[in-house]
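FW: tagging you since you asked about this chain on Friday. Here's the raw sequence from the shared folder, copied in full. Didn't touch anything.
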Amino acid sequence: MLKPYVIYPVKTEAALQAALSVRRTVFIEEQAVPEELEIDEYDSISSTTLHMIAYLNEQPVGTGRVRPYTEQGTGKAERVAVLASERGSGLGRLIMQTMEEAARRQGYTTLRLNAQCHAQAFYEKLGYQPVGDVFDEAGIPHITMTKNLYAR
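HL: got it, structure written out here
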């Protein structure tokens, strides 16, 4: 049974800090990504970057963001993180579906992401297709993937 997750767009500084705390736990503490690579110029409340935060019983447990990409009509899904206690629960899928809906509302027709290779199958189940070769980002193998948000 799916837990009673609640996913919101980040609208306040407190919610942004909650999202960043999830990312710090997952990427900086667990995966040893340097903070200067993880936290970047898109980590603010803005009109162009949409951050999402997932809560379980009022505790932040997951996050992700969508921002404009260089290609017209394309958004970049990034920084999708779920705390270890919630992995395998379906929360990652819910965050991605919520981000995809928000991306459609913002006028994007395609989402692009750089998936950690161990998560490639997760994204493929959501309809993302690999593009190009595996590359290193922060010492972790990644693959670029894309999805047409209107494909059936």
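FW: The domain at 6-111 is CATH 3.40.630.30 (Aminopeptidase).
HL: agreed, and Residues 58 and 79 are 21 Å apart (CA to CA).
FW: great, closing this out.
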